[in-house]
Amino acid sequence: MRRVAVTGLGVVAPNGVGVPAFWRALRAGESGIGRIASFDAGGFEVQLAGEVEQQLSLEPEERELARGDRKVGFALAACREALAQAGVAALSPASLLHLGTSLEVFDLGNLVAHGRVDFPAAVRRALAPGGRALQHPLDAAVRRLVQVLGRPGRALTNCSACTAGAQAIGHAFREVRAGRCDLALCGGFDSMVNPLGVGGFQLLGALSTDNARGPTACRPFDAARRGTVLGEGAAAVVLEPLEHALARGMPVLGEVVGYGSTLDAHGLSAPDPQGAGAVRAMRAALDDAGVAPARICHANAHGTGTLLNDEIEARAIREVFAATWPQLPVSATKSTTGHLIGAAGAVEFAACLLALAAGEAPPNPSLDKVGAGCELCHVVGGPARLDGEFALTNSFGFGGQNAAIVLRRAHGG
Amino acid sequence: MAAPEVVVTGAGMVTPLGGTAAECVRAWRHGAAAERRALPELSATPLADRLVARPAAVDAAARLGGRRLLKYMSDAAVLGCVAAHEAMQGACVHGRIAPQRIGLFGATGLAAARIDEIAPLIEHSIDAQGELSLRLLGERGLAQTNPLLSFKILANIPACIVSILEDVRGPSYVFTPWEGQGGAAFLEAHEALASGEVDAALVGATDDATHAVTIACLAQRGVLGPDDVTAAGAAYLVLERRADAERAGAPLLARVRAMALRPVDVAGHDPLGARLGRTLAAAPAIAFALQALGAQVEVRVAGADRQEFTAELEVLA
Question: Which residues of A are catalytic?
């Protein structure tokens, strides 16, 4: 089987647009969380999110797509950055395109006319030339990329919510490794920072209403955690066989060496209380990589800041890394980005890759006092030095889907 | 090393032609076509002539053995869960294969925002100027909506509910929203079996393209031909390696001779569309299930994503 190299990386995150800005913010513990500015959330209990404020460089047609559905713009910008770094201008039939995301956007305002819900009028407006869409299908980003880059052998839109980005990268890794494709553009993109996204999760009680905390409201593993904070953004990755990358003289940013995926089969909004699905996902990724737990030098936790997830994930990490967890630096980057849902797994993959490359694990700046049951070797107070070769990143989804990826530092021998 | 033979050991279906796999196959063989009807919500719109085909009402509690999780389910999720349950029961998987060794590979269509569900949210959020106020939506509108709304519109939830009800704990993928994505689920299931990652794959899709907002979206996107009828339906199948299935005495319904997903120039080829209606993401699974159970139907479906899924099966049962 082939070794799989990362040769391109692109990131759009609330705390940094572009890989250098993102890494600078992560390393410094700078949060992108603040008051929601993209819509009037003044009447919502939840008023915080991690929003991307920077204007992105998009074509006019793409700006129009992004006006209806912000996440499409994030996907396109991240993919462009990754492709440029990898020196890839087009997708061929020997390539794979696989992006993950979560929730469709509905244009609620378009349904209103003359002070009431007027669906017939909304349909007439939508079908008129240039009419605004009532509903935005999740394949918009993949569709646009196929238009501008050409057709890959397969173009996939993964909708596995919080694990979608990790699944897309894990799947692409397997396809490149097995020789079923020669290049993959993969990752995740999302924004649930819209009235139905924020409102829907607020109704479920999943979000922090601790608005006064501002940038530190997302508090993975902290005793004072009160729920997660939604974020938005995207990360894209170019994968190819290591020998191809070396043959064409591309800098290798790191390698993907293992992937594991499991289902909890327990509940829709709460993880398996024993963390069994999470444990199996991590072990499956380690087995796939052929790497013993003791060789992992860094873990990026799913770490949402919800009461249940963090305690159960901490327990699962302690079980998998039974001998090494007291010394295993664990980052929780949602503390500075918020929870990017369908993009989370990809953005956190990027964080892990950058951490390995820099030899430094980013800190969790909102962790003041470790919550009961959340004991791990948390990175606090500044970046932690990393001396090993392999890292692991976790993604655990709403609905019970779990994924873990093992990465290797570039030129690791 | 040659890839292992893969067989179908269970199939479940709910379509406008019938509430079970057997009913669907019987109706297809008899040349039946789905009953179609107009949607009142579309009557005063340019889409007034659009017709939809829905399955007869499904008693989900009876079919699934209880009401567990029903409150979280969209209409599409109900269809998917019923079809998956029929497939798992037929294959006698429970107790034969460990849950950790069963994978779930699914697809779902566009989220269905029902006007009757979202209208109260909006009506309570209209300000004095007659416009939607997001501030009022937060203050008043949200309280008028189903607190479980997110579960009904998140695209992965139908598959996740299947995993919970059927105790499937292996790897998973969920794709959306067009026909090619439904086909991709089959390729991943086949690959997981061939690589030995799973011992059984529950694979299929559910789609409900019969709601007014969905139809408006499809029309705007140009997905529908002039005479296309949209439909709701679901199919799930259990796939296993043949040697394992034979050893276990599992039902052998059909052998997978070949399957592929490739880019094509033409969108919208659906061999089921004229009689059953277009079920979009679910069409590949429904065609696959019909052929696996001996119905004369081509598994060649090309969708709005301009990818064509093809499969050839040899019926064994």
Answer: 162, 302, 339
